[in-house]
Design goal:
542 residues; alpha+beta; Phosphorylase Kinase, domain 1; Transferase(Phosphotransferase), domain 1; six-stranded antiparallel β-sheet; three-stranded antiparallel β-sheet; 19 helices; 41% helix
Length: 542
């Protein structure tokens, strides 16, 4: 019997140029291989049309159309076609650049929910590719997550490539051979079809923008705007039904009002009501993200930088660190909630730095209050004011010195700012009555979720943290977590428990491990593992 994975091209050379190394995909039209271009020793992708379809004039024309459409594109976010030709056995092939990554459908399946900043970053690149294609007279007509590859590059994560122009329409073409579409002919993927596409009506670039709206809806909710068990059912709903707002379909999802409004506009039945073009869509998306970040900052209080700014922190001498200065790297500025790892704590819970270069900006302001010549310049009132300020600063330093000396020499229960212990809470439904788990191990059910109340509690915790009321901040964050399961809150709580003069290692590790289970690709992973002195295993892919 022939082995199940045997393939007629693997191990062979096609057109004396490409040595086929492995089969990486298969579809109705043909197979996709990883191959090596012999002349340049470069990895490429070969798309080979099935032998049985070579006699089908329409299919051959569609295959050639893909090569021609993609060859018109010269954009970083569009797949590059390198070659088109015929193998020794007569099979047609397209050679394209190789993208080492996963498609957006796989990311959606494995990593949802995605942060809104990440969604905007991904879709903005898709729109850039579409803008270039539309400018070249190419309409994709089959845009969907499976046709969007995402590559993790060394200096740039989530780099997008749009591919598969197999049913692309070239709007200025006059000599394409046999017509690939005709009046009333429908092609594409039903879940992502625009209403005009479902009707078989003439299309323009705004049909692709509708598909982008569907993808945005799916990325923010994990669901399609319409559900059906048949292609006809999907087409009918795209034609006749208004999509429910994303926040109604998924109340637990974190979707900003501006993004929801833009998604619904992109899903308008009339092309005239959608964004005018891909560039305009991208600009609106950038504005929505800017407004979201501004709203988040304002909700955190008048001084968001006290929470968000990455400041140098000195080791507290706990057993989980090596005594060196550690600075949290500046994470992606779009991921505001990811950056909120209790940046106010270093100035409160860490000893003063050994040298002036490590002091935060507040030290510089204090130094400037020292009178250099009391008898000149500002006069007696100014001297009195400066002297009073210095006395207050000295008193504050003395208070904190006493504050830490008491905390360092006593047990956790005697700390002047003892944090709430992570008291066990009842286990999951169906477990034995005596079974209890810490809050950081508990899965928050949909019935327990209250996103609005959790948001209020989170903001309350942020304000408490800015006032240096650490116990209240910890209690507020824990209460917010019990209503949301937000992994960003787990990150904050881990930092709080770790940053005490006597670190609560079990609590810190528990919260951080919960954060990394929910967000395995978190940009906080490196600093967390550095603090814990050990790597934390990533969850296996489902």
């Amino acid at each position: 019997m022939r082995a199940a994975d045997a393939d007629e091209y693997v191990g062979k050379t096609i057109a004396h140029k490409y040595r086929v190394e492995a089969l990486i995909g298969e579809g109705g039209m043909g197979k996709v291989y990883r191959a090596r271009q012999l002349a340049l020793d470069k990895v490429v992708v070969l798309k080979v049309l099935r032998h049985t379809l070579l006699s089908d004039e329409r299919t051959v024309a569609r295959f050639q159309r893909e090569a021609k459409a993609a060859s018109r594109l010269n954009h970083a976010n569009s797949i590059s076609v390198l070659d088109f030709g015929q193998a020794e056995d007569g099979a047609l092939f397209i050679a394209m650049e190789y993208v080492a990554g996963q498609d957006l459908h796989q990311i959606l399946s494995r990593e949802w929910p995605l942060g809104e900043a990440r969604v905007v970053r991904l879709v903005s690149q898709v729109l850039s590719a579409l803008s270039d294609a539309h400018g070249a007279g190419v309409i994709h007509r089959d845009l969907k997550p499976e046709n969007i590859m995402v590559e993790q590059r060394r200096n740039e994560g989530d780099f997008v490539k749009v591919l598969d122009f197999g049913i692309a329409k070239i709007t200025d073409s006059t000599d394409d051979g046999p017509a690939l579409t005709r009046a009333g002919f429908v092609c594409g993927t039903p879940e992502y079809m625009s209403p005009e596409q479902a009707r078989g009506a003439p299309l323009d670039h705004r049909s692709d923008l509708y598909a982008v709206g569907v993808i945005l809806y799916q990325l923010t909710t994990g669901l399609l705007p319409f559900e059906s068990d048949s292609a006809v059912g999907f087409a009918t709903k795209h034609l006749t039904e208004e999509p429910p707002p994303p926040s109604r379909r998924r109340p637990d999802a974190r979707i900003s009002p501006g993004l929801e409004k833009l998604i619904l506009r992109a899903l308008s039945k009339s092309p005239d009501d959608r964004p005018a073009n891909a560039e305009a869509f991208k600009a609106e998306l950038a504005m929505v993200e800017k407004e979201r970040r501004r709203a988040e900052a304002s909700q955190r209080g008048a001084r968001p930088s006290a929470v968000l700014a990455p400041l140098p922190r000195k080791s507290t001498g706990g057993p989980l660190n090596d005594g060196r200065d550690v600075t949290v790297p500046g994470w992606d500025s779009n991921e505001v909630t990811m950056e909120a790892t209790v940046r106010a704590l270093p100035g409160v819970l860490s000893p003063l730095p050994a040298n002036a270069d490590d002091m935060p900006a507040t030290r510089e302001k204090t130094d400037s209050l020292s009178p250099t010549n009391p008898g000149s310049g500002g006069g007696g009132f100014a001297f009195f004011f400066k002297s009073l300020t210095i006395l207050l600063v000295v008193a504050a330093v003395g208070f904190f010195a006493y504050y830490f000396s008491v905390g360092a020499g006593s047990g956790a229960q005697d700390l002047p700012y003892a944090l709430p212990k992570n008291a066990p809470v009842p286990g999951a439904v169906g477990s034995a009555p005596s079974t209890e788990v810490p809050l950081y191990e508990r899965q928050i059910s949909n019935a327990e979720r209250d996103v609005e109340a959790a948001g209020r509690k989170t903001r309350e915790g942020d304000r408490a943290l800015q006032r240096l009321d650490i116990p209240l901040a910890a209690s507020s964050y824990r209460e917010a977590f019990s209503m949301s399961g937000d992994p960003d809150l787990a990150l904050k709580l881990g930092d709080i428990y770790w940053s005490r003069p006597n670190p609560d290692l079990q609590e810190a590790r528990g919260w951080w491990e919960r954060h990394l289970r929910e967000m395995p690709n978190s940009k906080a992973r490196e600093i967390i593992e550095q603090r814990l002195g050990a790597a934390i295993a990533r969850p296996s892919a489902p």
